[in-house]
Amino acid sequence: MNQADKVYLDLCRNILEHGTKKEDRTGTGTISIFGYQLRFNLQEGFPLLTTKRVPFRLVATELLWFLKGDTNVRYLLENNNHIWDEWGFQKWVESEQYDGPDMTNFGLRSQEDEQFNAIYQEQLKMYQERVLTDDDFAKEFGDLGNVYGKQWRSWEGADGKVYDQIQYIINEIKRNPDSRRLLCNAWSASELENQQLPPCHYAFQFYVNEGKLSCMFNMRSNDVFLGLPFNIASYALLTHLIAHECGLEVGELIYSGADVHIYSNHVDQIKTQLEREPRALPTIELNRDVESIFDFEMKDIQLIGYEPHSSIKAPVAV
Q: I need a surface site. Which of 93, 135, 258, 312 has the fewest CB within 10 A?
């Protein structure tokens, strides 16, 4: 059994067996534990889960979006990536400019009411098309506020200066690989009200040892079924990209979660996944002609040998 699936499935079992039922912001309800760590040896393969298909293209395009410092969903929509649509859509339907059907609690209602879901899908498609074609609309309702890309690439300090945390990390690894300050922080208490979704993966840190780059990322809140497989793959890819630019091999990826939970409407999907036998992990291949991580495009990143079980669908809690 590959270790990536094993440790992930062990976490799922732990939550189902020992977790506590809790209410949450979305009204869905969760089974939750507090404090958990997973470790992945990146030398053993790329930790993209095989017990269900995880759409790597969506993982990669979202990470490239972060690295561009972008906070507008237009780039994602242009790349047929819809994982942030609901948060931009929510911003629109809660605004004074929206004059369509009532979309209150659209996340839950679309799951429970087929008639409403048809109306919701129509409004969501309208939102997507306007973001892609209307510059003014995209500027106002496509932008999610000072989320990950802004914090990673344009952190604003109390001194009024703007800091590129990713570039700092790269420069520091090259200059002083033993530094204990190879850290990026996406959590800014003063800007929480200006973010459509406050950062869930709020900080990460790198560590260089014997020519290998390791990364630890921290999450305040984690949807284990839908979110965590994406998060693991995203930070694994980020580690590969930074190692590539800095002339290093990859080492370990370490996940540290605080409120680690399974949504109540994901339990059956988790049980299905637990019944599946893990398969061999894929590998990742980067275009060696691209020197800077900020110049990478999707065509420069190849996933090799990914043969997972079929995907398992589940609703997103917004």
A: 135
